[in-house]
Amino acid sequence: MAGDSIAVHKPALEVTGKVTAGKAEEEFRNYKDSDRHALVSRHYACMRKNQTVAFQEKMQAKYGSFANTKMTVWEAFTALKGYVDSSDPDSSLPNLEHMLQTAEGIRAAGHPDWFQLVGLLHDMGKIQYLWGHAEDGQEGTADGDQWALGGDTWVVGCKIPDSV
To answer: GO cellular component terms (predicted)?
Structure first.
């Protein structure tokens, strides 16, 4: 088998989102004046209510074996073309486009190659939406609840500050 070559199919990754140039840095992560405010607020309220130690243990038992499927990175990217993160007040772009923009921003800023790769892959775990169920905080669609997948993180089992 030495010397055999394997054909690799790379599906087209069509980027369709629109980006408005010139947004000031302080305008990002605006959780109050975003047109996505109600969606984002509901997302974080559900996270804080439902992400408990017991929930984390249940999800570790359910998904910790990595037995759902096998796919290439390109196949996972393709699956993320339809997922829009309900925790993001800044963007309604599909997650794949966000990942590509993040990697490109890192490259354009002159950061090392390894950091660009991290930017590209940073949201890859959201692929779990494909196997989600409503009781798990993800309805198995890109449009349903996502409180178990996206958003900021904190240590489960600790009191969440009132300021949050």
So the answer is: cytoplasm
What is the value of pTM for the model shown?
A: 0.65
Q: Terminal CA-to-CA distance of the chain, rounded, Å? A: 58
Both tokens of 56, joined, read: 């984390």
DSSP category for residue 150:
S
The binding site for Fe cation comprises 98, 122-123
Taking residues 128-145, what's their average pLDDT? 76
Please name the residues in contact with 59: beta carbons below 8 A apart, sequence gap of 6 or more. Answer: 136, 148
The domains of the chain are located at 35-136
Is the pLDDT confidence value at 13 over 70?
no
Per-residue pLDDT for 2 more than 60? no
Contact 95, 83 (CB under 8 A): yes
User: The tokens 């109050």 sit on which residue?
Assistant: 32
- CB under 8 Å to 147, separation ≥6 — which residues? 43, 44, 46, 47, 50, 51, 137, 138
The interaxial angle of helices 95-108 and 113-121, nearest 10 deg, is 170
Q: Which residues belong to the annotated binding site?
A: 98, 122-123
DSSP SS3 for 122: coil
